[in-house]
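Quick one: structure for this chain?
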Amino acid sequence: MPTSLLILSDTHIPSRAKTLPEDLWSAVESADIVVHAGDWTDIAFFEELHERSRRLVGCYGNNDGDALRTRLPLVAREEIEGLRFAVVHETGAKTGREQRMDREFPDTDVLVFGHSHIPWDTVTGAGMRLLNPGSPTDRRRQPHCSYLTATVDGHRLDVELHLLPVRT
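Got it. Here's what it folds into:
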């Protein structure tokens, strides 16, 4: 039976938005696993996401204070349908990222990361999939806010980027 994932990062709630868009909350509630790659910024949002998710996997980011850092790891690791996932906030500069991540995460099939607010989906030389969902609340220099959904079925991973309407 396939496992559905909702992949988020850099929500920055409540500084960038008061909450997630309602459609995204619906996606949270229907996903088998919600993955968050850090920069939650508010423990209350973490608690709400934890409550509304069937299962939550996440790490802390550079903007997360002590309350979140005591509840979350720097790197979260989870095996899902036989695929080894790691979730980390920062991976450094985009130049050389694939080679660096192959060295730093040799026992990982899928690495989810955040920090840049820029969607990213590549495969490293060693075959590791690198995913960044962007941000659903702070598009920065991107044309849209974004998040990812994925389906894991055995060792197969299908990923879809979702672009959110620009808020005015």
